[in-house]
Amino acid sequence: MNLLCKTEFVPVLVIMLSFLLSRSFCQAVNEVNRRSYPTISSFLRTFTTSSPTCQEHVIEDEASVVTLSQLKTMLSNHNIQLFDVRNPDEYQTGRIPQAVNIPLDILEESLKLSPEHFLQRFDVKAPGKDDDNLVFHCRSGVRSSKALGIAYQLGFYKARHYRGGYLEWSEQEGK
Q: Disulfide engineering: 117 pairs with which of 89, 110, 113, 147, CB 3.0-4.6 Å?
């Protein structure tokens, strides 16, 4: 009788543990990717609060990506809020016109600023959560994709990123 109970319990336990571990592992990876300095409290929040599944963290689809052609049109129409999430030294060596430098490591706190403080700090109007012309870019699309994830978490669901980054821009448009 005990053996029967144990053998019936093991598959259920394995299924439950695999679900918990796969979801927890994915959430932990997303947390580490989002923060460069994970803390114990952030990991505890990851495992103890209900949060989106891994698939919901995959936000990069074609609707969230701006192509070079689209970027050029938005720039020529002055219909863009372009944020360069590279480090200041990278920004100083070359940049896309109209881009405002907000390094990735301060992006979250910057997007949480009041409109007045944002304007004072960056000398541009703060983006609104419903703005559909908010675009992030970096060197090659990796950090801008992370920036997009941060923006989505803060409610900027119409934000996009330029996947080609400064590398593509400089190759096509020159410095």
A: 113
Whether 54 is catalytic is no
Residue 70: which H helix or E strand, with range? helix 68-76
Question: What number does CATH give the domain 63-173?
Answer: 3.40.250.10
pLDDT at 98 over 80: yes
Structure token digits, residue 1: 């009788």
What six digits make up the tokens of 79? 């219909």
Indicate whether 175 pLDDT > 70.
no
Catalytic residue, chosen from 5, 26, 54, 138, is 138
In angstroms, the CA 139 to CA 106 distance is 17
